[in-house]
Amino acid sequence: MDVLFSRFTTAQDVKQWIKEQAQSLGFADCGFLSVHHPLFQQQIEPLKRWLDKGYEGQLQFMHNHHHLRVHPEQLVAGAKTIISVRMDYLTQAPTPRSVTDNDRPNHAIIARYARGRDYHKTMRSRLKQLALKIENMIPEWQHLDICSEADFVFRPFSDSAPIFERPIADAVGLGWTGKHTLLLNKQAGSFFVLGELFISLELPDDEPISSHCGSCRACIDICPTQAIVAPYELNAAACISYLTIEHKGPIDIKYRRAIGNRVFGCDDCQLICPWNRYANITPVADFSPRHQLDDISLLALWQWQESEFMTYTQGSPLRRTGYLNFLRNIAIGLGNANASLEVITQLKSKLGVHDAMLDEHIHWAIAEQHIKLNPLDS
Ligand code: B12
Ligand code: SF4
Ligand code: SF4
């Protein structure tokens, strides 16, 4: 390649080209950060304080591999730069600033990111495609001081390793960290997921953007379980997303009414956020809802046999809960559903069928139904 005729005169040109390729692959945006950036060291103390408060619940993996969080270069030998990407996932714009999910208590609410194909797979396969495009271009970039002599090294991640994903995306300006602890920005709100591509090219860092939460605290006030204990401080163990997806076994009674009809994850703190008026619809078909998961009744889900659960959740994030915890969540939803003898009959039909944990949730749900049917008896 004749250097004089190259369209790449600086590393910024390379970054711009990578950004365009990322967008052509369905990523909304990307940014660049050195694996030696000081943020990795800076983030570890707040993480330890968070763990000291017991906010992680059963998320044991949050205790592991802290040295790799501080030294991401050890995660991928030869990596120099992290490309942080974000991908929008909404397939339908929700009503701005309102949590209408709760208006239909007999319907099951599944978090919007989880209604289609598992994003981890979508992200990682597209990040790999991005890496291969970059690798093909390396001969064109030899005149820039960004490539080492060694072979090109890359590795994609999305929620799959001890990486400070949100702080990295914050540092490269993909958004600011909201008081609900998620990343958001003025052009796209927060309904997007994050991923990273580690590469061995050396590219200059991008810069963070300023925060625009101001005096707003809508996310804190709307949270059904008061899991956002202070701005930027989430007690994961109290978050409905944690309780319905990550937590194994019985769910504390104190949370059950607040969980309402949310059977997998929770979007309330995002739905109420004013910046989500600007949330974008995803161009990625993988997020399209499967098996009517955007509009399905609690009773319809309650009928799923284990074999159906395994079939319907193939390649879906819903697999993560496992069948019995999924039924546990639906039982809570049915307890919170409108009073009906049909609901009680359906709840009873699974008593004694699975395990004591599920039975206890079914008994709770039946009792809740009775309170609503016969308020004077309680
Ligand atoms: C563990 C985890 C959870 C836990 C805990 C969430 C949490 N906020 O910590 C649970 C299961 C509850 C959860 C829920 C959800 N999650 Co989650 N989760 C993660 C995971 C694996 C790690 C997050 C983490 O490190 N938490 C530990 C704490 C210590 O980190 P932190 O909240 O960022 O805390 C820092 C801040 O508080 C900061 N801080 C303290 N004071 C201040 C002050 C200021 C001014 C600032 C700026 C910062 C700041 O310092 C702390 C230390 O770093 C990441 C993926 C990853 N590998 O990073 C996804 C991730 C954060 N989750 C994601 C999503 C989509 C969700 C849900 C929306 C899913 C849903 N719809 O149900 C909910 C949202 C709940 C919420 N309000 O956060 C996305 C977020 C995308 C985005 N736009 O930001 C991520 C990045 C996954 C991904 N690859 O896309 N999640
Ligand atoms: S996801 Fe739901 S429960 Fe968790 S912090 Fe947000 S509003 Fe609260
Ligand atoms: S609801 Fe308000 S405080 Fe919460 S993230 Fe959005 S702008 Fe920030």
TrEMBL record:
Residues 204-233 form the 4Fe-4S ferredoxin-type domain. It is found in: Cytoplasm. It catalyses: epoxyqueuosine(34) in tRNA + AH2 = queuosine(34) in tRNA + A + H2O. Pfam families: Fer4_16, QueG_DUF1730. [4Fe-4S] cluster 1 binds at residues 213, 216, 219, 273. [4Fe-4S] cluster 2 binds at residues 223, 239, 266, 269. Cob(II)alamin binds at residues 69, 159, 177, 183, 194, 241, 266-267. Keywords: 4Fe-4S, Cobalamin, Cobalt, Cytoplasm, Iron, Iron-sulfur, Metal-binding, Oxidoreductase, Queuosine biosynthesis, tRNA processing. The keyword tRNA processing applies. Its EC number is 1.17.99.6. Its cofactor is [4Fe-4S] cluster; cob(II)alamin. InterPro entries: 4Fe4S_Fe-S-bd (IPR017896), 4Fe4S_Fe_S_CS (IPR017900), QueG (IPR004453), QueG_DUF1730 (IPR013542). The active site is at residue 159. TRNA binds at residue 248. Binds 2 [4Fe-4S] clusters per monomer. Transmembrane segments: none annotated. Pathway: tRNA modification; tRNA-queuosine biosynthesis. PANTHER family: EPOXYQUEUOSINE REDUCTASE. Belongs to the QueG family. Catalyzes the conversion of epoxyqueuosine (oQ) to queuosine (Q), which is a hypermodified base found in the wobble positions of tRNA(Asp), tRNA(Asn), tRNA(His) and tRNA(Tyr). This is Epoxyqueuosine reductase. The gene is queG.
